[in-house]
Design a protein that fits this description.
The chain is of the alpha/beta class. The protein folds into two domains: 34-154, no CATH class; 157-218 and 261-437, 3-Layer(aba) Sandwich (Rossmann fold), CATH 3.40.50.410. It has helices at residues 15-26, 33-75, 83-97, 175-193, 226-231, 243-248, 306-315, 324-335, 371-387, 402-408, 424-435; strands spanning 103-116, 119-131, 142-154, 157-165, 200-207, 211-212, 223-224, 233-235, 253-255, 264-266, 287-289, 300-303, 350-358, 391-397, 415-418, 439-440. A six-stranded mixed sheet has the order 12-5-4-13-14-15, sandwiched between helices. It has a four-stranded antiparallel sheet with strand order 1-2-3-16, with helices on one face. The protein is elongated and about 140 Å long. The two termini are 54 Å apart.
Length: 442
């Protein structure tokens, strides 16, 4: 079949023209070719329109991605900026991200608000157009489009306990240095996210075999001195160095003054070692004073004094064996609204969270050096805390029982397996962002 394009004037100018026109419509040669020739232009127009709309769709997708990234970037500083500053920064960030020279008349607008105290919304809207290449034959010289990103963030009241491994193995591979940097940055992120002073409180619990409750608690009623008095004293017969050996050999044992205590405590009696039972309801609920040879930096209970948190992080020094259970249990205790720390009671606007970090397997607790036995206590503490609606982030640094820590985390997305100490800062940044509840809504 041969396509023939025939030019026909509007009005025939002669009898010959009339005859030619009549012959055109009567001619069966070529079938529909004459009519297809007449239809080819709109067909090409529709095909070209599909190409133009595909170009516009790709440009809009790129714009959406740039708007999302712009919104996330601005959300970090929007609370402290004016409307003009937000708009100016939005334009600058968006222009750096959206590089599509074919898009004309690009416009970006922002809208920032706080729908309720402690919660914020930033809307970033973009628009533009592209000149068509093919749709012009259908009368469309441009295709306009728009996109919108809405970033919601806010931080409810937060009580966060950080149970941080301070054992000897943390001295290797730059782990303690990296941990300190990451912890400082997390604290700064939370400080910047706080809307009202006091809405965020943080406790820090460095742990090894023991936790250092602080020598300032030497007279606290929740410290049990039975074991300490039996192990720290003087015998009237100088060759004996414990209460039992002294008394069994006719000597008189005199405990040392408690003011020489270094602040360390070890596990409570079972099953209080894996619960947040209030102290004061019997000897089994008290923490046992222990003159540990490797006593970590002292803990701090929930605090909203950022300088104290930073100072405590700087004090951490790696030494000793690993007892994850007591670090986790004490962290949970600091979040509990009962003795001895009396944290705020659970509430709909209050999140209670633990970050548990360790780089090794359990090696020693008050009773045993059996890893499997101590793991059982750790898992029970994890299960009990989660049952009490405490969310747990678990971080394994190079070494340690991955399965135990994964099971300890509230869900798999809250478990982090770190292969290099340099990754810690990114992990803590991710956790901080999650705590700030930052998300793209649209």
């Amino acid at each position: 079949m041969c396509l023939q394009f025939v030019t026909v004037s509007t009005f025939p100018r002669s009898r010959r023209d009339l005859m030619l026109l009549a012959r055109f419509f009567q001619n069966n040669d070529g079938g529909v070719a004459p009519f297809l020739a007449l239809a080819i232009i709109p067909l090409m127009g529709f095909t070209g329109a599909a190409i133009d709309y595909s170009r516009a769709s790709a440009a809009r997708t790129a714009m959406q991605s740039a708007l999302d990234a712009t919104g996330l970037t601005l959300s970090k500083t929007a609370q402290g900026q004016s409307t003009a500053q937000i708009q100016g920064q939005a334009q600058q960030v968006f222009n750096a991200l959206f590089i599509r020279p074919e898009v004309q008349d690009v416009s970006v607008t922002t809208e920032f608000g706080s729908p309720q105290q402690g919660n914020f919304v930033l809307k970033v809207t973009g628009s533009g157009s592209i000149n068509t290449l093919f749709s012009k034959v259908l009368g469309n010289s441009q295709i306009s489009f728009s996109a919108k990103s809405e970033v919601l963030w806010g931080i409810k009241k937060l009580n966060l306990a950080m149970a941080l491994d301070n054992t000897g193995s943390m001295s290797s591979n730059g782990k303690m240095t990296a941990l300190k940097t990451a912890a400082h940055n997390l604290i700064n992120t939370l400080k910047d996210a706080e809307k009202t002073p006091g809405d965020i409180k943080v406790s820090i619990v460095p742990f090894a075999v023991d936790v250092n409750a602080g020598t300032g608690n030497v007279d606290a009623s929740w410290i049990d001195w039975t074991d300490w008095d039996a192990a720290n004293g003087n015998c009237s017969k100088s060759s004996y160095h414990s209460k039992s050996s002294c008394n069994n050999n006719g000597g008189i044992w005199t405990p040392k003054n408690h003011n020489v205590w270094n602040g360390c405590v070890n596990d409570r009696d079972q099953n209080n070692d894996v619960l947040n039972t209030p102290t004061g309801s019997g000897a089994s609920t008290k923490y046992r004073a222990h003159q540990a040879s490797n006593c970590p930096a002292s803990m701090i209970a929930l605090s909203s004094t950022w300088a104290d948190m930073h100072s405590k992080i700087d004090e951490m020094t790696p030494a000793g064996n690993t007892n994850v259970t007591i670090g986790l249990q004490m962290a949970w205790q600091t979040l509990s609204n009962n003795a001895p720390f009396s944290a705020p009671a659970p509430a709909t606007d209050l999140d209670k969270v633990i970050i548990l970090l360790t780089d090794g397997e359990n090696t020693q607790n008050r009773w045993t050096s059996s890893t499997s036995s101590i793991d059982t206590r750790t898992q029970k503490a994890c299960d009990n805390a989660k049952a009490a609606n405490v969310r747990i982030y678990a971080v394994r640094v190079i070494n340690g029982d991955a399965e135990l820590l994964k099971n300890c985390a509230t869900n798999p997305n809250m478990y982090y397996d770190v292969d290099s100490a340099s990754e810690l800062n990114g992990v803590f940044s991710s956790i901080a962002q999650n705590l700030a509840n930052l998300r793209i809504a649209k």
